[in-house]
Amino acid sequence: MFHQLLDNPNRIEPGPLQAAARKQFPDVVRRSHLDFFVAGQHPRHSGKFVLIGIAVYSPRELQLLDAVDASYPDWRGIAEVAVFDLMECKDPRDVLEYYLPGPPYRLSSLGFRSVPQSPIVGIWDGAVLSALETGLYDTQKLLRNERLIK
Amino acid sequence: MSVAGIGGLQLQLNLGGEGEEADCINQQPPWVDLTWSIARNGLPLSTLTTAGVPLLFCENTNLCFPDSIIDTVYTNGVPLDIGTTWLGPSVSSGEIKRVLKSGGWWYDNGVPVFQKP
């Protein structure tokens, strides 16, 4: 589903393909088991909340969302998963300010002062940011440990 | 590793490359550093250089190659012509077309999307 946003059977140039994918991304999220996270929104205050920021131009990151969506039966009722398009951010500070709100010491204690790579995955337990990873390899590992992907 | 343009070999460029395409110069933009992790294995980019895989840092919008010198360009999961990302400018298709040789191909995520006339 998500990965189809970048299917390119007509071999069009990637720029227009990526622009169209970004435009369609919110609709695909609405058709999935994931929620669309709006800049400035706050993570929910109870239970487990998982926020995934991806680069919509990356097929592998779209496949990651497909994997999370496919595992819905495993996390239904246990976690709430929301996603956003990192391209909405204009610089690394935007990511922290609008999508990972919270005390800076919390991010520092998790080893982050900025968001260098995509995707990004944050996990909150009862409104406390408990884990944060960036980069495809480390985020896949975190999601696998949390049983959000197989 | 053989990289080309040297001794008549093919000169291949992987923009945003992390060594996933064989026999390429892997370009990264200036804001990337060698501690960043490689998507497929989580190892730092420095492991590429220590393994002898060519890594080149230059602006996405100003590739440091002369016109019409590259045989093949690869782009895999990189932003193209979509303005500025949260880290910096996206890759420019105009630059890709400038550096490609006549007859050279551009492959995006494995799909041949452009051949330079």
Structure overview:
The complex is a heterodimer of chains A (150) and B (117). Chain A is α/β, with parallel strands linked by helices and 150 residues long. Chain A has a single domain (3-145), classed as Glutaredoxin. Helix content of chain A is 38%, strand content 19%. Chain A is built from six helices and five strands. Chain A has helices at residues 14-30, 59-70, 72-75, 92-99, 104-109, 136-145, and strands at 35-36, 48-54, 79-85, 120-125, 128-134. Chain A has a five-stranded mixed beta sheet. In chain A, a hairpin with a 2-residue loop joins strand 4 (120-125) and strand 5. The longest helix of chain A is centred in the first third of the chain and has 17 residues, at 14-30. In chain A, 40% of the residues are buried. With 117 residues, chain B is mainly beta. Chain B has one domain (12-115). In chain B, strands 3-2-1-4-5-6 form a six-stranded mixed beta sheet. Chain B is globular. The model of chain B has no long low-confidence stretch (mean pLDDT 92). Chains A and B meet through helix 1, helix 2, helix 4 and helix 6 of A and strand 6 of B.
Write the SSE topology.
The complex is a heterodimer of chains A (150) and B (117).
Chain A (H helix, E strand, L loop, with lengths): L13 H17 L4 E2 L11 E7 L4 H12 L1 H4 L3 E7 L6 H8 L4 H6 L10 E6 L2 E7 L1 H10 L5
Parallel strand pairs in A: 1-3, 2-3
Antiparallel strand pairs in A: 2-4, 4-5
Chain B lengths: L11 E4 L9 E4 L17 H5 L4 E3 L12 E6 L17 H7 E9 L2 E5 L2
Parallel strand pairs in B: 1-2, 1-4, 2-3, 4-5
Antiparallel strand pairs in B: 5-6
